[in-house]
Design a protein that fits this description.
Alpha-Beta Plaits, eight-stranded parallel beta barrel, TIM Barrel, 474 residues, alpha/beta
């Protein structure tokens, strides 16, 4: 291969990327190392929930740009997320599945390098992230698209809507000649707030579970239902419509914003759906789609997470809505992150603990227990965190360059074949011209390496020892 390089054990000047993604497995905590299988596979997503180390990437319930979703999923899968959440669109599900396949191929190609010793590869891909689809039971800000008539725009307008759009969805070809690229719009509403003449409106919609065929449901691992306090009847109708989904699901998540009656409302929903045979997550949607605006946006989700934890609802609590690079630090300062070093077995339960026990101070969902902590004075903690606009914004500027680097290896073809459960023929290491550098060469100087480092810095706040490639690739 084109980048064989021996690592000098005495070398101490490792690059920042090597420190991030090149740590040795022996440095992993006992809780992770002992929960892995004999070939050093990482814990399953369910085990991550039990350990309080669950991390989810939110691609956007209304975001429908297939190439971007594919690369986002690939990068964050390599960084170690447990779940990726995408729009309820069969083409987007296909793109996300292709991103997971891309991650698998990159890991397997690094493992196929004959210079790699023994079992030092492919930790990530032992357990693919779960693929989640988001649905709504009522009008919700996550399920809307911006719309405007450019003919009504003043010719001399400074177009602040164009500048503020985080995905460049608002596009003008000339004054009074513009529109919204609906596949790029994810409904953040920032353009609505800044339009000086109020010319931009939101068009809400309901995502339909009937969009997916029975075959396509086999590509979906989890569902998230977005709801709001007082919508019991709407939630119940959607839950009934999800009957064909339930045999395929590994997890159910319920996302709800804060309200003075949110706790009794969530108890009503729990009684409606119980008993569940899969884990249940309460997503505390603090300040939706705002994590990239500033560190203060995280306070709302932390307040709501505290409220739900104190209520003792059965299930797992996961922070979202305004989460960013400051969230884990603030949760940790409030003792809401499980930092205990309990030994975890392969079944996701702490060693020496009765798996049938139900500690009153811990969250638990039907059939799935949370891990006890080492110290009795520590209260209930979150099970994980989800990153949306902040996680995407960290790597979006790099995606075009990453595409160029990966083109000889992964290609940029359409993922449409995934919709029918077929995979597209792709290059393999042996098909690359001799002397070509594989995509993991010189990661410290590549867009791929930069993107991986940024993604891993975020994911690593709850998963401090995740990594993808061996130390010698740098």
């Amino acid at each position: 291969m084109g980048c064989h390089r021996q690592t000098d054990p005495s070398r101490t000047g490792l690059t920042s990327l090597e420190r991030l993604i090149g740590m040795d497995t022996e440095s992993a905590p006992r809780a992770i190392a002992e929960s892995c299988t004999s070939n050093h596979m990482w814990p399953s997503p369910h085990q991550s929930l039990q350990m309080g180390q669950w991390v989810k990437l939110i691609c956007g319930a209304s975001y429908q740009d297939m190439p971007t979703v594919r690369r986002l999923v690939m990068l964050y899968a390599l960084a170690g997320v447990d779940c990726v959440d995408v729009a309820a669109d069969s083409a987007i599900v296909a793109a996300a599945r292709q991103g997971l396949e891309d991650a698998q191929r990159l890991a397997s190609w690094s493992a196929a390098d004959e210079a790699l010793p023994g079992e030092r590869h492919a930790r990530l891909v032992s357990s693919d992230p779960w693929l989640m689809v988001s649905l709504n039971d009522c009008e919700d800000p996550h399920f809307r698209k911006a719309h405007f008539d450019a003919a009504h725009c003043p010719p001399d307008c400074d177009r602040p809507c164009e500048d503020i759009c985080p995905t460049a969805a608002i596009q003008f070809q000339a004054p009074q000649a513009g529109s919204v690229a609906t596949n790029l719009c994810y409904g953040c509403g920032r353009c609505i707030a800044v339009c000086p003449i109020g010319n931009i409106a939101a068009r809400p919609y309901l995502a339909s579970p009937e969009t997916f065929s029975t075959h396509q449901l086999g590509q979906i691992d989890a569902v998230e239902i977005h709801t709001q306090t007082g919508h019991q009847s709407q939630f119940e109708r959607l839950w009934q419509r999800l009957q064909p989904w339930r045999p395929h699901l590994k997890l159910v998540s319920i996302s709800c914003p804060d309200h003075d009656q949110v706790v009794p409302y969530l108890w009503d929903l729990y009684r409606l759906i119980a008993p569940l045979e899969v884990p249940l997550i309460w997503q505390t949607d603090g300040r939706p789609m705002s994590g990239d605006l500033g560190k203060g946006t995280t306070h709302a989700t932390i307040r709501l997470a505290q409220k739900i934890l104190d209520a003792g609802l059965p299930g797992h609590v996961q922070a979202a809505g305004g989460t960013n690079g400051y969230t884990v630090d603030k949760l940790t300062a409030l003792n809401l992150v499980n930092r205990a070093s309990s030994t975890v077995g392969a079944n996701g339960v702490a060693a020496g603990v009765d798996p049938n026990s139900r500690p009153e101070s811990r969250r638990a969902d039907a059939g799935h227990r949370s891990l006890p902590l080492d110290h009795s004075d520590v209260g209930p903690t979150i099970s994980g965190i989800a990153y949306g606009s902040y996680g995407r914004s960290q790597v979006l500027p790099l995606l075009d360059a990453i595409d160029q680097e990966l083109q000889p290896w992964l290609g940029n073809g359409s993922p449409d074949q995934w919709i029918n459960g077929q995979t597209r023929s792709r290059p393999c290491p042996g098909a690359i011209a001799p002397g070509s550098n594989p995509p993991w060469c010189h990661l410290d100087r590549s867009a791929l390496g930069h993107g991986l480092a940024l993604a891993q810095q975020l994911v690593g706040q709850l998963k401090p020892n995740r990594h993808f490639l061996p130390t010698r690739y740098g």
